[in-house]
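Much of the work behind modern protein science is quiet bookkeeping, done one molecule at a time. Below is the pair of lines this work produces for a single protein:

***
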Amino acid sequence: MKIAVLGAGMVGSAIAIDLSRSFSVVSADIDEVALERLKACSIECVSADLRNEEVLKAVINGADMVVNAVPGFMGYRTLQTIIESGKNVVDIAFFPEDSAPLDKLAREKGVIAVTDMGVAPGMCNVIFGFHYSRMKVDSYLCLVGGLPIKRIWPWEYKAPFSPCDVIEEYVRPARYRENGVDVSRPALSDPELIEFDQCGTLEAWNSDGLRSLLCNMPDVPHMKEKTMRWPGHIEKARILRESGFFSSEPVEIDGVMISPLQMTEKILFSDRNWKLGSEEEEFTVMRVVVKGEENGVPAEHTWDLFDEYSAATKTSSMARTTGYACTAAVNAIVEGLYTEIGLSPAEFLGRDQKCFDFMLNYLKERNVVYSKKRQSD
């Protein structure tokens, strides 16, 4: 079987390398430097501008399956083209558009299309979907963050994925549900401090990670996701946002039109600021809490993940936790554990016990371990 991985960034590369253990893999990206690293792993590499639809079609033409790991701004159109081409696909592009309209197309083409299949959204949805199909859920909370171990002033943050996708977390309004009412609040709102045994105190804020859960779990009265950083980061990001540094509206400087957002990305993702080094130590922390009633009694399920950079494979934690969740879904489809035609948000994969267990075991084999505790009255 041949699998095309679109995007060779830090996460896309981890996906390609993991899949190459069992499949023939072709990796495509416009960044030839990123592709050079994969050539050393005996992966077929194609230098391609995937924004060009005809180029994209040519890349995936000979593939049996596709992974969409392009930046969010081009994710929806890329996914649409993949489905139109009749290819099964697992998507981690995290694009801002609603993917639901593509369900009809996927059904017409007989395609399995799994979306938002990273860590968050992704595995948190899988966990939620598992419990939702087995109990009456009253509340769902996801806390998640990826951070450098070494805190360097002023930002104390490094990004393991696309710069435009990181900044989206600071500007895209956060949708959540409170007391049965869907609410939209600015990103970075309602900050709070959360304690974790492995890393200490982190700062959490409202972020727009629920996505498909708001539609697919309409009877759950309380649902919220929060992103986390080291304390103090929120205020700095808010200053940039409110001062216009994240605006895409061009401004004129000496007769030249410049986008503040593009300039900000260029500065922040330089080596001295947010750019994560290829061997820089970082970690991913996530907590998922599902409360409700199970078998007639109150129940609370808490899942925790703490994962660190792998020195053995020189793979970032965010690439591991996001990428291997994606490849777990790919393998679940290949092995016939997940066969639902149409568009499937990640929570759908959690409904089947065999698929759920397979994905957790797949991740555990790669030392990405989700621990669970249950509290009940």
DSSP finds twelve helices and 18 strands in the chain. The mean pLDDT is 94.
